[in-house]
Design a protein that fits this description.
By secondary structure, the protein is α/β, with parallel strands linked by helices. The protein has helices at about 35-45, 60-70, 85-100, 120-125, 195-205, 225-235, and strands at about 5-10, 30, 35, 50-55, 75-80, 105-110, 110-115, 135-140, 155, 160-165, 170-180, 210, 215-220. The strands form 4 sheets. A 7-stranded mixed beta sheet has the order 5-4-1-6-11-8-12, sandwiched between helices. A two-stranded antiparallel sheet has the order 2-3. Helix 2 (about 60-70) links the parallel strand 4 and strand 5. It is globular. The chain starts with 5 loop residues before the first strand and ends with a helix. The relative contact order is 0.19.
Amino acid sequence: MNAPKTAMVLAAGLGTRMRPLTNDRPKALVEVADRALIDHVLDRLAEVGVTKAVVNVHWFADRLESHLAARTRPAITISDERDELLETGGGLKKARPLLGDDPVFVANIDSVWIDRGDALADLIRLWDPERMDAALLLAKREGSIGFEGGGDFFLGDDGKLTFRGEAASAPFAYMGVHITRPDYADLGPDGAFSLSPLWRQSAAQGRLYGCVLDGDWMHVGDPQARDQAEARLKAEA
């Protein structure tokens, strides 16, 4: 497998839905089953060979940097967004000089999962830069913890993704990890912007792909979801 060695970890958000747990810390440092959310993600990435993680910071940035300084695997590089929150696309664009030229993982910090297969390895095997702009890790909407809404995508037999569009629901949700080119967001606007419009363009061109987690996904977006995720992880232990 030609696994990405670098990851962009999106940790700059305000975590407003997670209050009061984020009144004194960034969302990335909220703990689930005695580990900070960001450590859940970084440990997963390290397990599949990521050696460098670029982490963007904003809310309680100093505290997050201090926490990350204790990590040795993967090595941490900071993308500083103290002056302006840039969302997913703007964050990736700003971090571009730090990411190198090879494909990268891009990961949110609010996803925790129980893996009965080998989800990130499956994503690596799927990734093909000749055919794809991005390869997304998906979860089944039904049975997920903390996910609200009708789902994001339909998945074709060939792995291509189609947005839900006008349909009432779709079976799969994006679970916060994908592989893409480090320059994917370079042509986006200045300032803050989302990756979603870029994904829509790629999907229309048949260049957005995905694979599905064999396991249980927990979207830790608020205190109730945090408690549910912690209970689920402890039950599995």
